[in-house]
Task: inverse folding
């Protein structure tokens, strides 16, 4: 199982801003700061995580790019992917709808034997089918 952060946008600056807002808190916890450092991501001078870590942790792009990345993770051997939306605009409902539609489309394809869960609305693929 993997917990995956997803931003459905091609605006890298918006992804970085939202990613930092979501993740910089962890840099203040010694366990996470050490884990990031051990993984090769040293904290910045102001004790924030580096942009490269946000890039590594957040799957971002248009729906096609995000779907391709999620598919890669599932076909690489993951049985379950838990998805959290990284909100990058003020249109949270639109972003959430786009993510749910993307997950619904993935369910309709050959990935039915895998499980994708959205933490934002606690919906599993099986439950999404009822909506789409």
Result:
């Amino acid at each position: 199982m993997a917990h995956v952060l997803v931003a459905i946008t091609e605006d890298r600056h918006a992804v970085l801003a939202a990613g930092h807002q979501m993740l910089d808190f962890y840099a203040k916890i010694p366990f996470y700061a050490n884990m990031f450092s051990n993984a090769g991501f040293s904290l910045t001078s102001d004790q924030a995580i580096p942009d490269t870590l946000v890039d590594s942790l957040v799957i971002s792009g248009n729906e096609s790019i995000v779907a391709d990345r999620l598919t890669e993770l599932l076909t690489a051997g993951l049985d379950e992917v838990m998805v959290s939306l990284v909100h990058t605009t003020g249109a949270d409902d639109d972003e959430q709808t786009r993510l749910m539609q993307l997950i619904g489309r993935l369910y309709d394809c050959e990935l039915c034997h895998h499980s994708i869960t959205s933490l934002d609305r606690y919906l599993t693929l099986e439950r999404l089918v009822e909506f789409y």
